[in-house]
Design brief:
There is one protein chain. The chain is globular and about 55 Å long. It contains 17 helices and no strands. By secondary structure, the chain is mainly alpha-helical. It starts with 19 loop residues before the first helix and ends in an 11-residue tail after the last helix. Helix 2 packs antiparallel against helix 15 and helix 12 packs antiparallel against helix 13. The N terminus is likely disordered. It has one domain: Growth Hormone, Chain: A (Up-down Bundle), CATH 1.20.1250.
Length: 418
């Protein structure tokens, strides 16, 4: 049963005029997510070089690209439980350390199995981010500001690949992929210095007004939770299809050079970030003017998913270089509504359950990374081209829109005590 949102709701503990430290935390979360996505996307940028160096076919390359998601998806529900018992800031710091070292170590490795193992470790480290991020924002950000705060952080989800594909592609072409991995992993560790100073300590955000965290069974029997799981699965499939295979596709099927690939990928993901920032600001303005949370959040996700799916099919069937603007537009559509995914979960779950909700949601949904990476590689290997993979991704995106609009219930806080 859902209670109406009021100024006394737990999620409103933070004031509309947030203190400076709260925005510093949000900014540091945004930088962490950017590094997170540079680290997870750099393997796709290096894929053409790895294919030649290790003698891999598309199916084997798909398995290597999917390795990250096995440990990532399996660990997420556990991390969601953990951030409600240990400081979410501490959990994030430990995970950040693990994933940065895993990135750096990859640059020293030779052989398919060792690299596969390093990607498994990377997935384990990066699994901490979204549950910790979901818990922290639900603690410190008021309901009517969740769109903007999530958009600020999630925009960097797109800036990560933009930097990784553009700068990473250019640097790898010049210096090789190994020095890039090593330097990136070690330089990332500098983020820990400001985070350890400003991170929320957990107890400072606990309040007597926050109800006890609900049981796992209480959460799993909620239709809206499964709606967000299915919706995010479909969005992740589409996003990771672009993230893991776009560099390879434009080089090997569309004939672009490594430099052209880097520029196209950079433009696409910067555009996605810009769309995220703009839509986060716009939707919060609509909600502040009295519009329904349910209407605005569902419309944003439904339209974004449908548009991305249609544009991908048009991209696959376009001739010559006309595919490029369609690919950019599809990336902007699916990436530009990413902030809304977490705003929905944080709103419905509230501070007492946001970390668990995000952990369960992302745990199931990130098997889409395994599916998108491996299935796309298998389909491309069997058919000799990417058209069928694009059509399949379109179908997945359309089902995701249905899930957000029809399966997810009202976007308002649940009364867990009932």
């Amino acid at each position: 049963m859902a209670n109406p949102v009021t100024a006394d709701s737990p999620i409103h503990r933070a004031t509309p005029d947030l203190p400076r430290n709260a925005w510093i935390v949000v900014a540091l979360l945004a930088v962490a997510l950017m590094i997170n996505y540079i680290d997870r996307s750099n393997m796709s940028v290096a894929a053409p070089m790895l294919k030649t160096e290790l003698g891999l076919n598309e199916a084997q390359l798909g398995l290597l690209l999917s390795a990250f998601f096995w440990t990532y998806a399996l660990a997420l529900p556990v991390i969601g439980w953990l951030v409600h018992r240990v400081s979410a800031g501490v959990v994030l710091a430990i995970g950040f350390l693990v994933w940065s070292l895993a990135t750096s170590v990859t640059g020293f490795l030779h052989g398919f199995l060792l690299m596969f193992a390093a990607r498994l470790l990377l997935g384990l480290g990066e699994s901490v981010f979204y549950p910790a991020f979901g818990k922290i924002l639900a603690d410190i950000i008021p309901l009517k500001r969740l769109g903007s705060a999530n958009a600020f952080v999630m925009g960097c989800q797109s800036l990560g690949p933009a930097f990784g594909i553009f700068a990473g592609g250019l640097l790898m072409a010049r210096f090789g992929w190994r020095p890039f991995f090593i330097a990136l992993g070690l330089a990332s560790l500098l983020w820990l210095l400001p985070w350890l100073r400003y991170m929320p300590r957990g107890s400072e955000h606990e309040a007597a007004s926050v109800p006890p965290s609900p049981s796992l069974w209480n959460m799993l029997r909620r239709r809206s939770l499964w709606g967000t799981v299915f919706g995010l699965f479909c969005g992740n499939y589409t996003w990771y299809f672009l993230l893991t295979w776009m560099p390879y596709y434009v080089v090997h099927e569309r004939g672009l050079s490594a430099d052209e690939m880097a520029k196209l990928g950079g433009i696409a993901f910067v555009g996605s970030a810009a769309a995220n920032f703009f839509m986060g600001w716009l939707t919060d303005r609509w909600i502040a003017s009295g519009a329904s949370h349910t209407l605005i959040r569902k419309a944003t996700l439904g339209v974004g998913y449908v548009a991305a799916g249609v544009l991908l099919v048009l991209c696959a069937t376009a001739s010559g270089r006309s595919f490029a603007p369609l690919l950019i537009a599809a990336t902007m559509c699916i990436g530009g509504c990413g902030f809304c995914i977490f705003a929905v979960g944080q709103t419905i779950a509230g501070p007492s359950a946001a970390g668990k909700w995000v952990g369960i949601q992302n745990g199931f949904a990130n098997f889409a990374g395994v599916a998108a990476s491996a299935v796309t590689g298998f389909v491309a290997h069997k058919t000799g081209h990417f058209l069928a993979a694009f059509v399949l991704t379109c179908g997945v995106a359309l089902f995701g829109a249905i899930s957000w609009v029809l399966i997810v219930g009202k976007v308002e806080p649940l009364d867990w005590s009932s």
